[in-house]
Amino acid sequence: MIPQTFDYTAPATLDQALALIAQGAKPLAGGMSLIPMMKLRLAAPEHLVDIGRLKELNYIREDAGALHLGAGCTHYEVETSPLLRGKCPLLSETAAHIGDVQVRNMGTIGGSIAHADPSADYPAALQALEAKIVLRGAQSQRTVAASAFFLDTFATALEPGEIVSEIIVPVEEAGAGASYQKMAQPASGFAIVGVAARLRRSGGKIAMARIGVTGLAGRSFRATAAEKALENTAGSAAEIQAAAALVAQGVEANSDLHASAEYRKHLAAVYAGRALFAALARTA
Amino acid sequence: MATTITRPKTLIGKAIRRREDPRLITGTATYVEDIKMPGMHYAVVVRSPHAAAKIRSIDTSKAAARPGVVAIFTGQDVSKVGPVPCGASLPGLRVPNHTILATDRVYYAGHPVAVVVATDRYIAADAADDVEVDWEVLKAVADPLKALEPGAPAVHPQWPDNKAFDFHQEHGDIDKAFAEADVIVKQRILSQRLIPTPMETRGVVAEWRAADRALNLYSSTQIPHLLRSMVAQMLGLEENRLRVVAPEVGGGFGCKLNVYAEEALMGFVAMKINKPVKWIETRRENYLTTIHGRGHVDDYELSAKRDGTITGIKLRIIQDLGAYHQLLTPAIPTLSVLMMPGLYKTQNIFADIVGVFTNCVPTDAYRGAGRPEATHGIERMVDILAAELKMDPAEIRLKNFVQPNEFPFPTATGLIYDSGDYAAPLKKALDIAEYEKLRREQSESRKQGRLMGIGMSAYGEICAFGPSPATPAGGWESATVKIEPSGKVTVLTGTSPHGQGEETTFAQIAADELGVDIDDVLVVHGDTALVQYGIGTFGSRATAVGGTAVYFALQDLKAKIKKFGAMLLNSDDVTLANGQCIDNKTGASKSVQEIAAASYRAMQLPPNTEPGMVSTHFWEPPNFTFPFGAHLVVTEVDRDTGAVKVVRYIAVDDCGNILNPLIVTGQVHGGVAQGIGQALYEQAVYDEAGQLITGELMDYAVPKAHMLPWIESDHTVTPTPVNPLGVKGVGEAGTIGCSPAVVNSVVDALSPLGVKHIDMPMTPEKIWKLIRSAQ
Ligand SMILES: Cc1cc2nc3c(=O)[nH]c(=O)nc-3n(C[C@H](O)[C@H](O)[C@H](O)COP(=O)(O)OP(=O)(O)OC[C@H]3O[C@@H](n4cnc5c(N)ncnc54)[C@H](O)[C@@H]3O)c2cc1C
Q1: Does the beta carbon of A211 lie inside 6 Å of ligand 1?
Q2: How far apart are CA B250 and CA B262, in angstroms?
Q3: Which of B641, B687, B691, B760 to mutate to test the interface with A (most CBs of A within 10 A)?
Q4: Which residues touch B144 (CB under 8 Å, ≥6 apart)?
Q5: Quick one: average pLDDT of B425-448?
Q6: Residues of chain B numbered 618-677 and touching chain A (CB < 8 Å)
Q7: What is d(CA B569, CA B573) in angstroms, rounded to the nearest whole number?
Q8: Is residue A220 part of a domain?
Q9: Domain boundary residue among B271, B289, B307?
Q10: In a domain? residue B661
Q11: How many alpha carbons fall within 13 Å on the CB side of residue B186?
């Protein structure tokens, strides 16, 4: 519980922060994952750059049919933003599942996805939303799809010197419904399995299905086989169950003290079914 | 001069808010970590990463070279410090030499090996990482059943069978009971290892005052006086030169009813470096090195008649002791044997305990200490018997209870149950639940394929430890009550409250007895320099034993007040009431305050009476007390995931007279939370190599508020004749009554699938597997 020595800088601008990060300093956002790791001496960064206070990273705005979130938005801000609740409720719903009030007040969406805990909640929603993630370095900026961002346990597409600066999610179209369903690990509150589902109905058929899964494997992913199975069906209970059963198919599942691989796969199907039913009920 | 009396007639029985809470909820209380002293140094303990290893050598040179490092001590340096004491004695008990730092070998992951002392805690922590130990890693054994197998790694090489003791107790004619039984039921029942997890970890500040040859030791402990006696002995220091202070203690649950290596070690360090030193346990250290609880494998057999009469109980306990005996380690399972008949009449019992060493941190007292295991066992077995006989679980309990006219009731295990009406709380719980309606609801829900369960437990417990012959260090408690010259009342209790609320309840007793305002009463505890010798707070004893000591000290004072009052009023017939000493003939009166002032001024003294207004009382209880109650739990199991939802929780507890219902309910709530923790969530898991897998709050699932049900708490009141307050104790009741009721409820939910028993914790995956294998 006693970290090693480190330097701490709280720069006033994003450019200053990026310059320090380019020199090897480590970004500190909400500190909800980084500080515990430092206290346990699992991480020992020499220099922390506090990006959690940068106004430049703290915004939620609509632009050209998409919603742009600064990486510095706290889980609480994502949870309660009227704009998100109205236009991308899945993200707010997911944020509400994270940790407890204190964690949601401190932790940031950028920090969560950069950390890439395989049991974190956001990745399921971001996969289902086909979110885009903007990565910035001192001299660079690029945008990657969520499906290309999460690589493995604690591994992302971030290159040294880059930070997550923005998350872009779509404005939900009329007729869409979404839901995030999760079994929480009883000690940590993280997802043993979490499934985000988005559905759009049109003409009595499911026109679009997106399913994002977290907790099940080393990385979050989109369950495309299940999506395909569902699209163009009427979305009957049997069709939903059949699609949900595909979510874990062929996945090499995690196994730990709290859930074996076999149980996780079973849960993935159960929670996919629950998320799909809830999403369907929310479609207009 | 009569004055108007405005205070309420009596405070006893009133829901007075806890007087300790404002400082706790405003964050202004002083815990060990809050103590700062000029020149204070910080210690970090170097611990073994291995569960079993030989120490070939320790190289401290790199650590010592770090600027700011003041001293490093290893096992060799502390060889003159006495061993960590075990206060329990059993015939033939094998007691390993428990030095405060390992010397040539370590026995569990977390075993202290060295201590690094530096000018600040960051330097100390960095330097601790620099200490290099050359290990020869040995095979470890963490599972008590495996430890008993031939050829298992020997925890202590001198005892290759890994047995610390065998204990046997029997009564009546068990063979006859079993030979003549209509039915015999058997079950292996586990009470898993648990980690007590107080919010405040342990911590010690030691200050050596060389000029006075005096050591001040601030420790997060439940037993300041016992700690003083034992640490003084370990350090070879005269007892009256050691002062132990338990400042604010952020929870103990039994894990601070102990003497730990670090307590003596910090005393040693302070004396060596001649500077104050602070050590604060990290959460990881707390999980690795502070005692765990439970750790039972229990094999039960019950014999019974067809009508449900229980005729005999056989029990074999395998107790996972861990690597050492801490203060009471081997005694805990003997309490399970004492409680094994539960509330039932049977006089035929047969019990064996095997105490097993494992390469794990020692087990010891954790909320309930031996009684939850016993209650869990007997209450599971009674349900199993009821299922076998197709009887209602309430009916079979009512049939076997000791009856109200049978008290004092001698049990098969040698206890004398003090008082009780065991059917009363069960019937009350059934009424609150509307039991018959609930059963109808259940059969309806079953028709819909739902898994709804109704479970109950009827528990008894041993509290108010206890008569001295039955308690290792003496079972009495002490109190001093002083009325200061200004009339303010100071109560010094030998108990050491750390969340139980005695600063409030003892003030209620004193205010009532003396007829003074509760705000005029201050309850002081936890400082051996201020308070006369005492035993401490554990085993639901503080109010029943310590409160009674306060009560008797108050009776002495009242007699003295009356003597002074009579003198001052020039009367030979006075009454003390509502804070006034009244001349029964004239109606003239003197207040307690006036009388106290006169007793110190001492212009005149009553015959054979000393000045001052102080009384000390040591009270030896004639017996334990035996609270009881019934918990009833409704659960619903999610067929798809195996998750258990507690739908209703009804707790009807009988703790004798209730001094403060707010505090009693709070104790029940906390106890139930820990019981639900055991039933559904918590388990300390070691892997094959003896590594603690649940070494963090990220993996050890203490229930949070949102994981707990609404608790419907109610009471019946059966005063105990053991003490004049009629109080029994309630600190552990919730935990003891809880786990069997929850498990019985879930087993009941799954009974249509043929499930007969489930071990704790009832994790969703475990339940899901049961459901799946039934399909
Ligand atoms: C008690 C507790 C419970 C929790 N429960 C949950 C839960 O149920 N579900 C869940 O999903 N999470 C949970 N979390 C984790 C929480 O969501 C964290 O907030 C999140 O994982 C990290 O975000 P942060 O802003 O705190 O990042 P930090 O801890 O500051 O940083 C985390 C890592 O990301 C890096 N980083 C931070 N920001 C950026 C950026 N913009 N670009 C690049 N790298 C960056 C840091 O250098 C560090 O390596 C819990 C945490 C705690 C302490």
Answers
A1: no
A2: 18
A3: B641
A4: B295, B297, B318, B319, B320, B356, B358
A5: 98
A6: 640-641, 643
A7: 10
A8: yes
A9: B289
A10: yes
A11: 3
Q: Report if residue B9 sits inside a domain.
A: no
Helix/strand/coil (H, E, C) string of B523-581?
EECCECCCCCCCCCCCCCCHHHHHHHHHHHHHHHHHHHHHHHHHHHHCCCCEEEECCEE
pLDDT beyond 80 at B368:
yes
What is the spatial distance between Cα B459 and Cα B480, in angstroms, rounded to a whole number?
Answer: 35
Placement of tokens 């004695």 in the chain: B89
CB B620 within 8 A of CB B471: no
CA distances from B685 to B324, B344, B361 (A): 18, 34, 12
Query: Of A170, A203, A228, which one is at a domain's C-terminal end?
Result: A170
**CB distance A71 to ligand 1 below 6 Å:** yes
Share of chain A above pLDDT 70, in %: 100
Phi/psi of residue B354, each to 5°? -110, 120
CATH number (domain holding residue B571): 3.30.365.10
**A86-132, pLDDT tens digit by residue?**
999 999 999 999 999 999 999 999 999 999 999 999 999 999 999 99
Cβ atoms A71, A165 nearer than 8 A: yes
What is residue B473's predicted lDDT score, i.e. its pLDDT? 86
| Domain's final residue, options B619, B635, B660 | B619
At B648, give phi and psi (nearest 5°).
Answer: -140, 140
Q: A266: which chain B residues are within 8 Å (Cβ-Cβ)? A: 768
Query: Which residue is associated with the tokens 């949102």?
Result: B706
Q: Residues of A at the B interface (Cβ-Cβ below 8 Å)? A: 1-5, 40-41, 100, 183, 185-188, 257-260, 263, 266-267, 270
Ligand 1 pocket test, pick from A34, A54, A97, A126 with the greatest ligand atom count within 8 Å of Cβ, gives A34
Residue ranges making up the domain that contains B502:
21-28+476-619
Q: Is the Cβ pair A257, B707 closer than 8 Å? A: no
pLDDT at B623 over 90: yes
Report residue A64 as tokens. Answer: 């050209």
Cα A241 from Cα A265, distance rounded (Å): 14
By the CB < 8 Å criterion, does B768 face chain A? yes
Distances (CA, A) of A10 to A48, A206, B134, B539: 8, 49, 42, 52
pLDDT at B356 over 70: yes
Calpha distance A122→A107 (Å, rounded): 12
Nearest to B678 by CA among B333, B459, B364, B373: B373
pLDDT digits (tens, 9 = 90+) for A183-237: 999 999 999 999 999 999 998 999 999 999 999 999 999 999 999 999 999 999 9
The 3-state secondary structure of B305-338 reads CCCCCEEEEEEEEEEEEECCCCCCHHHHHHHHHH
Quote the number of domains for chain A. 3
Q: Give the residue carrying structure tokens 């949070």.
A: B704
Query: Model-level pTM?
Result: 0.96
pLDDT digit string, tens, across residues B690-718: 999 999 999 999 999 999 999 999 999 99
* CATH code for position A91: 3.30.465.10
User: Is residue B320 domain-shared with residue B352, that is, in the same domain?
Assistant: yes
Q: Torsion angle, CA of B99/B104/B106/B110, rounded to 10 degrees?
A: 70
A115 lines ligand 1 (CB under 6 A): yes
User: Bridge partners of A198?
Assistant: A178, A210
Residue type, B84: V
Query: Mean pLDDT across chain B, nearest whole number?
Result: 97
Interval B547-551 mean pLDDT: 98
Q: Considering only CA atoms, which of A257, A176, A230 is closest in space to residue B192? A: A257
What type of residue is B494? G
Atom of ligand 1 nearest to the CA of A119: 11
Show the domain range for A224: 176-281
Check residue A174 and give its pLDDT.
85
